[in-house]
Automatic annotation (TrEMBL):
Source organism of this protein record: Caenispirillum bisanense
Record protein name field: Predicted arabinose efflux permease, MFS family
TM annotation in the entry: 26-46, 55-74, 80-103, 115-136, 142-163, 193-220, 232-254, 266-285, 291-314, 326-348, 360-381
Source organism superkingdom: Bacteria
Keywords on record: Cell membrane, Membrane, Transmembrane, Transmembrane helix
GO molecular function: transmembrane transporter activity
Keyword Transmembrane among UniProt keywords: yes
Pfam families associated with the record: MFS_1
CDD domains, alphabetized: MFS (cd06174)
Bilayer topology: Multi-pass membrane protein
UniProt cross-references to InterPro entries, sorted A to Z: MFS, MFS_dom, MFS_Efflux_Transporters, MFS_trans_sf
Amino acid sequence: MVGVFTFPALLPGFMAEWRLSNTEAGWISGVFFAAFAAAAPVLVALTDRLDARRIYMVGAALTALSCAGFALFADGFWPAMLFRALGGAGLAGTYMPGLRVLVDRAPATARARVVPLYTACFSLGTAASYAVSAAAAEWLGWRAAFVLAAGAAVAALVIVLALRPVDPPPQAEPGRLLDFRPVFRNRAAMGYVLGYVAHMWELFAYRAWVVGFLAAAAALPGADGAGWSGGVLSPTGVASLGAVIAFACSIGGAEVATRLGRGRGGMVYMVLSGTAAFAMGPAAAVSYPLAAVAMLVYIGLIQLDSAALTTGAVEQAEDGRRGATLAVHSLLGFGAAFVGPLAVGMVLDAAAGQGAVTWTWAFAAIGAVGLLGPLAMAWGLRWSVTKP
């Protein structure tokens, strides 16, 4: 995870050094998740047939290669696109396959807690990525940050190599590897998957642009941003602290949703986060400290539903199709994670500025899609086989 957000963490520097437009920056951030979405159907579906541990190790190796390649060869838009895409394929081989590594080794009674904990740990990895990348770049330069990320991926490979092999459970009705029609017919699971699509649009648009937004907010006239260039409320500090807050909110949100009903709780959370998006631009117009605090609150709201959505999809999956369901979950969710950052960049370029009004439009694009999530979940819950 250390290399996942290295580019977004250092975004203002890359935009200045390589003279990137907002749209180009959105492409580099988004292509990571486009590659994830393209690779996930095969890599995650394979976990129904192979030990997920083997898939994970392939993903970790791809991640190490992508970070090392970026450090050695990236000098502009196209090389950055290439190596970030390779990194996205690497994450596709580690994220959901990593979940299968845990689920296949955990007793059935523990899965309801294992899945939310694992999903929440993505946020801890995000925090580490922002913090380590910013610190390494400040002391040794941005290329060193990517070298460090490559080393972390190698360490993850070695750790998983030491786990005991486990064969996946047999499929009730074995079919072709990429035949996802049974998953799409499972409307209860698809309700959670489509809710996850809206969530991922919102979450990764935030993560791709949080540093860029706060850097722009600090530069606004009267923003009082000059004294916040370092420390916990600096742009990268907010990104890192926000990821830690997201970890806590993901676990807490899952626990509350279990008591309220996972589906109903998820819908409430999505309404709150989607509505909050519309306040981010106006907050920047008031002051930088308010914008920074608002972003911390916003990421907490976004992350409340994350674990509940993935757990719901796993619970609603048919026996023997858990990997296929997670593959569709990843394909559609990370497809949205690709388009969200790109859409924000396009809105910023279309509005031709970095002012508070421009960012208000950008966050409106984020929040509007986020608010579609509860509608999709309401549709899916009609066919739920467990308590909604």
